[in-house]
Each structure stands twice: as C-alpha cells, then as structure tokens.
Automatic annotation (TrEMBL), chains A, B:
Any one GO molecular function term: diphosphate hydrolysis-driven proton transmembrane transporter activity
Keywords carried by this UniProt record: Ion transport, Magnesium, Membrane, Signal, Translocase, Transmembrane, Transmembrane helix, Transport
Range of residues in the leader sequence: 1-22
Protein's UniProt keywords contain Transport: yes
Enzyme Commission code: 7.1.3.1
The name this protein goes by in its record: H(+)-exporting diphosphatase
Membrane topology: Multi-pass membrane protein
Subcellular location: Endomembrane system
Coiled-coil regions listed in the entry: none
C-alpha cells in the first residue's frame, strides 16, 4: 500500500519537475531571443555568442540541478520510512515512479512539441518558399509566428522534458539495480549514480567557462569549434572526476547479484568508473560519427547535395540511404559498450554506462537550447527589418548550433538504448524474485513461442509510432498550407512590398496547437498501453520479447531518421551557400528546390519521429518495470490468457 | 568428409537449378512479350490475357517442378549412401546445401537484377519524363531498351531465382528439422515437406484452368479478379489437399524432440496440416492487407495521391508513413502463425508453416511473370507505333498484375520470416547436439552480453543492406541520366518527331549491366560474410543474437519498403487516370510531377531493397546452419576470441 502511494508521489514529482523544466526553458528562451538579436547588432562575435550560449546554460544547469535535487530530496524523505539498508530495495522501487513521470511528460512534450513546431515549419516552408517564393521568416507569411512559437515549444520545452526524462530514468534504473549495494556499502554507495550525475554538472560548469571566458569566440569560424570543445572537454574531464567520487563514495569492494544465474559479482570502484567512462566516450564517438554524417563539411552530406542535380527523387534515395548507413558505427559502438559494461558489472554496469552517456547533459542541453535561441533571434531580426548583417550573424550562430546539436543526439540515443536494457534487466530481476526463481532464473529464452512472437511485434511498434507521428505532421502541415493559402486569397494585398493588410497569425498558431494536442494522443497511448496490455493479457514472457524487439528496432530507426533529417537540412544549406554560376547553382535554382523537398521531409524525421523513438523504448521499459508486480499478480506472470 | 562433399554437390545443384530457372524465365518472357502484343491487337480480352498468363504459367510450373525433381532425385541418390533411417539426419544435413545454393544465387539475382532494372527505369524516368517530357517507352529515349531488358533481368530472372531460393530453403529447413521423424515414420514421413510442395503444384495447376478456360477474361474489369481468384482458389484447395497427403504419408502419430529442453512432442497428421494451413491462410491475409495498402481502389493510396497536392515532400512523408503503418497487421498475423505453429509442432511446425506460405508458389510466380510480360508487350506496342488501343489494353493487363503481385509478396515475406526462424531453430539444435547439451539446452538467453550486443548488430544489417542497394540504384540511375543527356546533347535531332538519328541503346544497356555486376558485390558480401565471421570470431551465442536481430529488423523493413514503393507507384497511376479539370489535375500537372518523385523513390524500395531483404534474413540463417559445425569446431563454439 505504502509502496503504491510512494510510487505515485514519485511519479507526480517526476512529471511536475519535467513540466517545470520545459516551462523554465521556454521562459528563458523567450527572454533571450531578443537580447541575442540586440547583441548581434554590436560589432564582434563574443557578445552575441555569449548571450545565446548563456541562455542555453540557464536551461541546462537549471534542469539538471532541479532534477537531481528533487530526486535526492525525495529519496531522503522516503528514507525516513525505509530506514534500514535492507529496505532500500523498496525505496528505489518507489523512486522508479520519478523516472516514469519524467518519461510520460517527455513523451507528450516531445511528440506534441515536435508536431507543433514541424507542422508550422513544414507548412510555412511549403507555402512561403515553394508556392510564393518569399523568404524564410518573412512577416507577411501568416505561419511565421507559429513557426517561431514552435521553435520554443518543440526545440526548447519538448527537448528539455525529453532529456530530463532520460536523466531521471537512467538514474532511477541505476538506483534500482544497485539497491542491494546499500546493504554492504551503505547509503553513500547506493546513491553513487546520483553522485555521478551531480559531478557531471560541476564538470560542465567548469568547462562552460572555456567558451564564455577563457577562449572566447572572436570570429565566425570559431563558433562551431567553441561548442565542440565544450563537449570534448566535459567528456575528458568526466573520467578523472568520476574516478575520484567512485573512490570516495563506493566501498573498496562490494557484491552484486547477477541478473541471470546465481553468480555474484565482486566489484571495485575502478570497474564502476570504467562503465561510466565507456558510456561517456562511446557517446562522444557516436556524436562525432553523427556529425560526420550530418555536417556539410564532410562528403556524405555533399553527396546528398550533389544528388539534387538529378532532382528530388535521387535526393530522397541518397538521404534515406545515408540515414540507414549512418547507423553502422553507432550500433557497433553501442554493442561494444553493452558487451563491456554488461560483462564487467552486469546490469549495474549497463545502467552506469547509460548515466555516463548523459554525464555531460548540462552541456548538451546548453547547446540544444542555444540553437533555437539563435534561430529565433534571426527571425526577430528579419521581422524587425534590421540590417541583413544581423541575420547573417544569427544564421552563422544557428548553423554551428545545428551541427553541434547533432553530436548531442549521439549521447541521447546511446543513453536511451542502455537505459532500456538496464530497465529490462531490472524488470527480469523483479519478476525472478517475485516468482522465487520460477521465471527467468536462467535468463530470457528467445526460443519461447510467446517471446519470439512478441519480439516481432515489439519490432513493429517503433515503425508504427514513426508512421503515426510523421503523418500527424504531414496532416497538420497540409492544414497550415490551406489556411495560409486562404489568407493569401482573401487578403490580396498581403504580399505587397508595403502590405496594407495584416496576416492572421493567430489562426496558424491555433492550427498547430490543436493539431499537436490532438495528434499526440494516439501514438502516446500506443506506447503506454502496448506494454501494459501485453503484460496483463499475455504475461511476462511476452513483455520481455516486446521490450527487446522495440529496443532493437528503435535504435536503428532513431539514428537513421535523425541523421537523414540532419543531412537533408545541411545539404540544403550547403547548396544555398553556393554561387549561382557554380555547379550546384545556389539558392532559388531547380537543384535548390529539390533540396528543399528533402529538408521538408527531414523536418518530421529529425525533430518529431526520430528523437521521440528514444522515449518510446525507455517508456515501454520503465512502464513494464513499474507494473512488474501487477503483471506477476495475474496468473503468476502468465497473463489473463495464460498461454504457455 | 563425405558430408562436406555431399553438401558441396547439393550447393552446386541448388545454384545451377536457380540459374536455370532464371534463364528459362527470361527465354519464356522474351518469346511471349511480342505474342502478347500481337494478341492484344485482336478484339476481346481473352486471347491477350491468356497469352500473358500462360507465359507466366510456363515459368511458374517449370520452376517449381524443376526445383522439386532436383531436390528429390538428389535425396534419392544420397539415400544410397545413407540407407538406414538413423543416418537420414546426415542426409538432410547434406541437403541443406541445396537451399544455400539456391539462396546465394537468389541474392545475387535479386540484387543484381534489381539494380539493373531500376537503374534503367529510374534513369529513363528522370530524363524522359522529368527533363524532356517525352512519354514512357518512347523509342527516342536511349534508356528505353535498357529499361525493357531490365524488366526481364530483374522482374523475371531475379524474381524467379529469389522465389526458387525461398522454396528450396523452406523445404530444406523442414527436412532437416523433421529428419528424426524418419526413424519412426520411415522415408515417406520424412519427405512429407517435399510432398506438400508437390501437392501445391497440382493444386495450382487445377486452379489455373479457372482463369484460362472455366471463367475466361472477357472485359477489362475482369482481369484483376481473375488473378485474385487464382490466389484465393489455390489457398482454399490447399487445405484439404494437404490434409489428404498428411494422412497418406505421415504415420498416425510420430515423435519429435523439442528444440529447447527435453520435452518430446507426439504429433498427428492433423497438427501438421494445421501448421501448413496457418501458413497458407496467413499468407493470404498478409497479401490482402498488402493489396489494401498498395491498390488505388482503397483509401491509403488515395490519401497518398491527395498528399501530392502540397508537393513532393508531403507525398514522401505520407508514403513512408504508409509503408511503416502497413506492417502492423502482417506482423500481428506473422506472430500468431509463429506462436501457433511453434507451440503445436515446435520448429517442425514453423518450417511447415513456411512451406504453407509458399504452397501456391506456382500461381504466385505465374502472376509475377505475367506482369513484366504485359509491361514489355506495352513497350513493344509503343515502339512499333501500333494503335494506342493496344497500349491501353496491355497497360490495363499490367496494372492488374501489379496489384495481384503485391498479394504474392505477402506470401514471400511471411515465408521468409518463418524459414529464417526454422533455420535458426535447426542451428540451435545442431549446436546443442554437437555440444552434448552444454550449449542452448535451456534455449537461447537474450540476457547474455554477447547475444544482446549482436542482437543490436543484427538489427543493423538490414538497414545497411538497404542503404547499399538503394544507393547503388541511385548512383547507376544518375550515370544513366548523364549518358542520356550526353546523347541528347550530341545528337540534337534525336528528339525530332521523325528523328534522323538513332539513339545509342547499347551504351545505356552497358551502364546497367556494369552497375549491376559491380554494385551487387558489396551488399552480397556483407550478408554472406557477417554470419561467417561472427561465428568464427565471436562464437555461436553471438550468431544467435545476430540472426534474431536481423530477422526482426528485416521483416519490418521488407514489408514497409515494398508497400511504400507499391503505394507511390499506384498513387501516380491513380493521378494519371484523373481528368485535367478534376481535383487531382491528371497527367502532366504539378500534382502528377510530385507523384512521379514518389514513384521514382519507390522503384528501388519495392523492386531492389525491399524484396531482397527477404533473402538477407534467410541467407544469413542458412549459412549459419551449414557452417554450424565449423563454428562449433572453433573453441567449442566460443569463437577465436572466446568471449564469454
């Protein structure tokens, strides 16, 4: 009874913190947008870069700090009820609600926000650029304001709650798996995962001074390297920092029960550090590979740009192929991290590696928020009809942010995969204990008919989810186009050089808002109810197949979709930078039009469906863990149908 | 020693039969193309439909018959060496080489053929339609002949060897898994899977008279239903036919050792029949769902067509989403068949269900060959400048073939998934016996670090494969466009109404030939070497993860890619049928141009990458099975690295 109530409280706290983070991010972004525009009017690059970067940092550090404080305070409060170390297993079980709360909000934030922003973005692009040939962010386009609002809703609030969800879940997974450490190692050892995240904040804080004070940005070409240095520096500094706290907080050796079989792992601080480090370094490698495939400084994106010469169709073929191919190295890195951390410290190692992936979350978030702030600063410059040099400046800042944000996505995807695996491990352990080793004692057999059947079904969920979210964006974008078209038709003077009529921005905002609220429900419901119904009707062997199938397919699809989208975006930007008499003809040419098609398709790929797939796998896993006891209560884990 | 030699001989025979089937198909198609054109000039529909349909039937029945005779004769020959029933396990092991041989050729046939035909098709479309606005199959387009040759190479020869591979593999899988039945049930019981396939031929033969004689095609709207009746009739007739032979050939009860654990299944003829029937009926359901998602008679394709109103980008988004979504019901059907057949007759049931999916192979092949024959008949009509009514007739025949071929794809995909699972089961059994129950006795644990790491890697293979093959098509198509452009530039009178110059068809054919031969090597090598190297270096637990991961991802991707491609193709055809003053504006409009982009992207989706993924999963599984003993020989299945 207590446990249920405590889990529910954790859930509410997680959900509230997630919402608070998103709200905070939007507030900061809105305040900083115009300031960045103003500082971009000053000479030099330092002022405007620092304004935008610091805006991102407010969000990054506030979110991480808030998340850790809430989590730790909740744990301390629950400790009053569960004072003795052998009760801490229950304490951590109640804490998983915090991760679940964060994830559920993350799901709706990411999907809803993604639909909102991309409906506006795609709609504005289709009408503005394709049909009427007016520039981006032109105030005469009625969808412009919706597009700008969308940047805040989707790219700041949605992304913030997404990453908060990742952080909360990975920490909770590590806590629940490592709860038995408390018995021999005490409270300090048990809360080690929280400490690692906390150390991450300090490391990020330290390295943020590199960008703002030590090695300030003085020229356009320094922007991207400044952001990249941030990520690399935090990764390098993390390893000794984690080793230091592992010696302080962890006992010199501690025991851990294996998930499968009866083996007991005897672990030491260096092994825990290695697992965290594998995650951090693995994340950086995945990030750099992502950058290679999505930045127009390298050959893959240039190949995509070249393929536009023969039209939109070859652009599509090349872009999709690039996305699929870009998953090869990240998947290999992931499998090395899985194998390494799993062999070294069992599921605890996997959970620590997941935390390692997110150790530089504060920096990642800083850069992620920095991007939309610069983007909107450019929009304000355009609408306020400032000198074009201001817009050029914010565009350059934004472009560097796009590339570096791609690196950040590497960390998020790696973390999501490992968190899901760790949560699945925790689920198996929970069922194993509940059934007194009658279930899962020898692991999870794939050659069980029910498991295999659900393995295929699990593999289908991410595809169905991507289909639903993509189509929502397409549908809402088409509505947006119709609305804008209607306004152009009804107000013929809207497009004059000095328009005498004002577009109805609110109508467009209403379309995005309505679409996002309505359309986020079906995919969200599918992700939430599939594991619940599977567990209740088909039992725990079915759930294990479902989770693993969803994990395998989500990883591939998430990486592919994000990178295809990023590559199309940057291929378009690459073509825009070419002069009209070069081979790629530059802006406004047929080649550019073909590239715009790719960019438009890529929008829901990279900002709605792709990143939301991270949440799909995690949310399904954490739900199964939280409801493990419920599943077990139905026919001893056999489910209502009690199929063998 | 003997076993190695026998396996090698089977391999060669399988490969030769596959090549012979492809060659035969091309010969028949080439002979029948022009005859179909000639009979299309006659009044009425019966003559031309029957000509094309019978051409397909020649290929369908020849291929199935040849496959079964070769297989059965080989088995009889080997029986001389392995006379006693307890040696038949070795006999069936040697026979797996036949399946492997068929698959390897199928892989290269499908990939090479797919690249050949789509390079020519996409290239011809891009230049002909998009750049110069000349109609399809216009003899002034230098790529036209390459396109027609490609239809024979890819859609007839490539597809024929693909389906021969499916047939050979599913039969071999059932033989190897059911080999122990021979001990109690004798030769007749053991060869039951071959008998089922043989019965399928007779059932298909019987029902083929419905189309050609009993209920002949008399009007345009009867074409599609005539073809559909073929598939439904064979499915319905198969069930009693299989039940009849199961009573005749199988003993009234027989024992089968379970793959996992020590259970022994006591089976009866009705259970074997049920497994076959589940496959046949499941295949039909998947086929009908495929038709629903790819025919323009239903709402999904019309939605895609409508999305073209806002341009190519929304068309792409809708088409991809449709493909992803179209996998939901097929996957559910597959998982029901997996669960049902697996629980009922263990892996033997799965293998029988896989044969059930392919029981109407002869009919499926007939329809599959019928399509390209009509397509090329239309091309000949265009080039011979016959009356436009001839072309309209062949186009109608072709369109019906496209839709019905989509139903056939359902059978192929279902069969591939189940064959792969059955082969994986056989692999596990083989390793289990070789290790005297030290390995896999309790099944295959997914929570083994190495297995899980390779599960993710396995999931990546289909994506990498799709990327490679798609890009090959894109690359070759771009070369083709350049070549055609060069010819248009150098011979300015090529496009005159009465051209005084002849295009250089050979140069275009050479591009397709060279591209297909060169580009099929890397993806083929990846699929062949990945399981071999995994088994040798990382051992059998790694292989099991790899195979299952590849299976899960391949199923989703194969269904999605095939259906997206089919939907785009038919959305374009739907728009072409509209009048210029209707909402969709019809041929030549901007809406139509947006639809052409989708169709062009869909070409490699549905005819190169998508269907080849069926072979990817099967080939990896059969290779692992054939080399199981080799893998076990390296450190007792631990591989060179001997990781735990």
């Amino acid at each position: 009874m207590h446990r249920g109530a405590f889990t529910a409280i954790s859930f509410l706290l997680g959900a509230l913190t997630s919402m608070a983070s998103g709200y905070l991010g939007m507030k900061v972004a809105v305040f900083s947008n115009v300031r960045t525009t103003v500082s971009a009017q000053k000479p030099g690059w330092t002022a405007c870069f620092n304004t935008a970067f610091r805006a991102g940092a407010v969000m990054g550090f506030a979110l991480c700090g808030l998340g850790i404080i809430m989590l730790y305070v909740t744990m301390l409060a629950y400790r009053v009820h569960y004072p003795s170390p052998d009760q801490w297993v229950h304490l951590t079980e109640c804490i998983t609600g915090y991760g679940l709360g964060g994830s559920v909000i993350a799901m709706f934030g990411r999907v809803g926000g993604g639909i909102y922003t991309k409906a506006a973005d795609v709609g504005a692009d289709l009408v503005g650029k394709v049909v009427h040939g007016i520039p981006e962010d032109d105030p005469r386009n009625p969808a412009t304001i919706a597009d700008n609002v969308g940047d805040n809703v989707g790219d700041v609030a949605g992304m913030g709650s997404d990453l908060f969800g990742s952080f909360a879940e990975s920490t909770c997974a590590a806590l629940v798996i490592g709860s038995s450490i408390g018995v021999t190692g005490g409270w300090d050892a048990m809360v080690f995962p929280v400490i690692v995240s906390a150390v991450g904040i300090f490391v990020c804080l330290l390295s943020s001074f590199i960008a703002t004070d030590l090695k300030t940005v003085k020229a356009e070409n320094e922007v991207e390297s400044a952001l990249k240095i941030q990520l690399i520096a935090t990764t390098i500094l993390m390893v000794p920092a984690v080793y230091f706290v592992s010696i302080v907080y962890l006992p010199s050796s501690f025991d851990l029960q294996a998930t499968v079989g009866d083996a007991v792992f005897t672990l030491h601080p260096w092994e825990a550090t290695t697992c965290v480090a594998m995650g951090t370094v693995g994340g950086l490698i995945i990030g750099l590979v992502t950058e290679y495939y999505t930045s127009h400084s390298y050959s893959p994106v240039r190949e995509v740009a070249n393929s536009c010469k023969t039209g939109a169709a070859t652009n599509m073929i090349y872009g999709i192929a690039l996305g699929y191919k870009s998953a090869i190295i990240p998947v290999l890195v992931l499998s090395v991290v899985v194998y390494g951390s799993f062999t070294m410290c069992d599921m605890y190692g996997v959970a620590l590696a997941a935390i390692g992936f997110l150790a530089n979350l504060a920096t990642g978030l800083t850069i992620d928020v920095y991007g939309p702030v610069c983007d909107n600063a450019g929009g304000i410059a355009e609408m306020a009809e400032l000198d074009p040099s201001v817009r050029e400046k914010t565009d350059a800042l934004d472009a560097a942010g796009n590339t570096t944000a791609a690196i950040g996505k590497g960390f998020a995807i790696g973390s999501a995969a490992l968190v899901s695996l760790a949560l699945f491990g925790a689920f198996v352990t929970r069922i194993r204990h509940a059934s007194n080793d009658a279930l899962f004692a020898n692991g999870v057999n794939m050659l069980e008919p029910l498991t295999f059947a659900f393995l295929i079904i699990g593999g289908m969920i991410p595809f169905a989810f991507a289909a639903m979210t993509m189509k929502s964006v397409g549908l809402a974008a088409m509505e947006m186009v119709m609305e804008v078209q209607r306004q152009f038709d009804e107000k013929p003077h809207l497009l004059d050089a000095n328009p005498t009529e004002r577009p109805d921005y609110d109508a467009c905002i209403a379309i995005s808002t309505k679409a996002s609220l309505k359309e986020m429900v079906p995919p969200g419901a599918m992700v939430i109810f599939t594991p619940l119904l599977t567990g209740i009707f088909f039992g725990v062997t079915a759930v294990s197949g479902l989770l693993v199938g969803a994990l395998v397919a989500s990883v591939q699809l998430a990486i592919s979709m994000s990178n295809s989208g990023g590559a199309w975006d940057n291929a378009k930007k690459y073509i825009e930078k070419q002069s009209p008499d070069s081979e790629l003809k530059g802006k406004g040419s047929d080649i550019h039009k073909a590239a715009v098609v790719g960019d438009t398709v890529g929008d829901p790929f990279k900002d709605t469906s792709g990143p939301a797939l991270n949440i799909v796998m995690k949310l399904m896993a954490v739900l199964s863990l939280v409801f493990a006891d419920t599943f077990f209560a139905v026919n001893g884990g056999g489910g209502v149908f009690n199929l063998s």
